[in-house]
Amino acid sequence: MPVTPEFVLGCIILIIGVIAAGFPRPTTYLSRLISLEIPGFGLLLIMLAYDEMLALLTFVGVTAISTFVLVRAIERKEAAP
Amino acid sequence: MELAYPVGLVVVAASIIIGFTALVREKDDLHRILLTDLAEVLALVLIALVATDLAEALILPGLVVGISELMAVSEVYIAKEGLRAPEGPAFRIEVMDSAPGILALILVAYGIVLSGFTGGAIAAVGAVFYFMCRGHTEQFELIETVSGYAWAFWIGAFFIFMFLPAYWFFAVMIAGGAILLKVMAKMSLVGTMRRGGPDV
């Protein structure tokens, strides 16, 4: 299989996203949670390059639920004195 | 395959090194939980690079284990720190009053068309969004009962596969519909975590 544009873009976004999520500039919970979407998008592009449709759709669905779970923990942490 | 796979492996190796460096240098527990999510994404990339049906079959259980692990760890964290739900009136946005009906309808309909595990996850997102925005008053015993029957149908479909292989299409339909109901019923319970029902 030749190297497709989606694959190259996915790899670049993955590296950028891991750096952004690993070392966010204002080190707050919210900025790190938002940065976590970037490597997820790189993963989606790599799955798209390999035609993994079921895995892609399930990842989209599960990411929405995991964001909800994380926001719940962050909300309670920020509300604590 | 001949060039993409080594390039992908190098990229994933570099990402893992960066990600785990960040994880080691982090002191705050909640930040560590967020970075665990990042590590899960990197593991999934590693599996996705296999690029066959096997990769797809391995990613689905990986996602399930990831989400349940994340829920368990965040619950343990909330219990350990003794955190409580924030006081005061609930967060109100106009979209949260008008959107849930139509959005949940679209997602649930699309999930039923997809069927199987993926359809269950998509439909569950619609149900979670609806419960999150509108609150919930229904009986959880009903959801549990439906989920239990769906599981029994799923097992029954596998018996058809084993003993009556001629009727495989019938069994595929039963298994796809049953796992859709099962996953949707279980995951939609997540949507009730916010408004504090008696079971949470």
TrEMBL record, chain A:
Keyword Transmembrane helix among record annotations: yes
Transmembrane segments: 6-23, 56-74
Pfam families assigned: EhaE
Protein keywords: Membrane, Transmembrane, Transmembrane helix
Superkingdom of origin: Archaea
Protein name, per record: NiFe hydrogenase
Organism: Methanoculleus sediminis
Taxonomic path: Archaea, Methanobacteriati, Methanobacteriota, Stenosarchaea group, Methanomicrobia
Automatic annotation (TrEMBL), chain B:
Pfam families: EhaG (PF09878)
Transmembrane segment boundaries: 6-24, 33-52, 58-78, 99-132, 152-185
InterPro entries: EhaG-like
Keywords: Membrane, Transmembrane, Transmembrane helix
Source taxon at top rank: Archaea
Protein name stated in the entry: EhaG family protein
The organism of origin for this protein: Methanoculleus sediminis
Classification of source organism: Archaea, Methanobacteriati, Methanobacteriota, Stenosarchaea group, Methanomicrobia
